[in-house]
Amino acid sequence: MALGSSARHSAMALFERAVVNLVRRNRIPAFARSPRALVQRCDTRWLSTSPALRNAPDAPNTQIFHHVAPLRLYRRSLLLEDRTVGLVPTMGALHEGHLSLVRHAAAENTDVFVTIYVNPTQFGLNEDLASYPKTWEADLQMLHELDKELGSAGKGRVSAVFAPSTQTMYPTLPPDSSIPGVGSFVEMRPLGQLLEGASRPVFFRGVATVCMKLFNICAPERVYFGQKDVQQTVVIKRLVKDFHLNMDVRIIPTSRELDGLALSSRNVYLGERRRNAGIVLSQALRKAEAQYKAGKRSRGDILWPAVDHGDATLLEQETMEPSKRAKFQVDYISLADPDTMEEVDQVDDTRGAILSGAVKMLPVEEPQEGEELGIGGGQIPVRLIDNIVLDPVE
Ligand SMILES: Nc1ncnc2c1ncn2[C@@H]1O[C@H](COP(=O)(O)OP(=O)(O)OP(=O)(O)O)[C@@H](O)[C@H]1O
Ligand SMILES: CC(C)(CO)[C@@H](O)C(=O)[O-]
Ligand code: BAL
Predict the structure, then answer these.
(1) What is the extent of the structural domain holding 146?
(2) What's the DSSP call for residue 63?
(3) pTM of the full structure
(4) Protein residue whose Cα sits closest to atom 13 of ligand 1
(5) What is the pLDDT of residues 188-232, one digit of tens each?
(6) What are the distances in angstroms from CA 364 to CA 246, 249, 278, 313, 328?
(7) Is the CB of 254 under 6 A from ligand 3?
(8) ipTM rounded to 2 decimals
(9) Which family does it belong to (predicted)?
């Protein structure tokens, strides 16, 4: 008999409670208390369905979860075995940057949970939610390959992928992306309204809210975030501190292309012309960093070469033929305090600072026959962000 979705959820909750009670009262035999045995009855999917194959060293090891109850059950069973969980939240469309987070998580934990969920509440009403890249099968394949590699290296394994629906993540529907927004949200003010938050007003409300949910569901010992999204890392650290969340936050260095462009899921929309021009941001930030390394501490001294480089590159593009150029808008170049992301006039040597920037790559003009234009034919505007940490000086 098919159950309706709320009946299924209640059944799952009852099942979970029953199992936990049995485990507490020691009524579940040892073999059945293994994480795998416990979740096999739930609606999870293995990358391999054969138990014999799963036990081989390079066998598919990762379970896919779409619902909260079975994942919680699995998490609790890991706890009973003194295993630790490192959580890597993502929006999918995985690339080497994401894999680097997983590798770091596997080096410090017995089990890595990767979440794949394109969270609607962090996208404003006019942002690119609808066109955000979705590459589910390729993502699973990448995680599977990485898990095999981790298995042979004797590291922690990618034991769970959590890919919930929006109904699961937002039980009180619908999720709202409007300002001020109706729903249950976590917000950090003014931190979430600065820089990225100024251009994407609901972004950090959505990020903090969905991460709070993911943290509550997965109960990890450690959470892993990329340095590329620096303001997001500050928001997450604040979330963990202000809400007394019992987990450590790890920040992993930005993975880059050889020329310095930060890897990003949205890069697939750039195409060759915009990709070549998009390097302007990382170049500009490097110029400002060089000033800091040369002993400059005032805002003007540090930032002017970055702003100058942006202006000069833009001018260069504007004087090219429309069929060759890639125009962009600089949203901001910032020099900010590492804990508050508020702009600073002078860098305090004991605190250091964050150099960051955002540019919007505009749709390409006069696309050419045979030109590599990226997904969307070069017509989807692409927001690029990047940053450099200016370390405190001893
Ligand atoms: N180049 C990178 N190096 C290190 N971490 C990264 C990199 N790109 C993304 N991450 C991290 O991966 C996690 C998931 O990010 P997300 O799925 O949004 O990918 P993304 O590449 O940042 O996509 P987007 O195009 O939305 O910026 C975040 O913690 C993010 O900071
Ligand atoms: C942290 C995150 C997964 C929340 O949706 C997202 O903002 C991201 O991928 O950086
Ligand atoms: N990596 C941040 C997710 C976003 O841009 O929505």
Answers:
(1) 63-252
(2) E
(3) 0.89
(4) 90
(5) 999 999 999 999 999 999 999 999 999 999 999 999 999 999 999
(6) 47, 39, 12, 16, 10
(7) no
(8) 0.99
(9) Belongs to the pantothenate synthetase family.
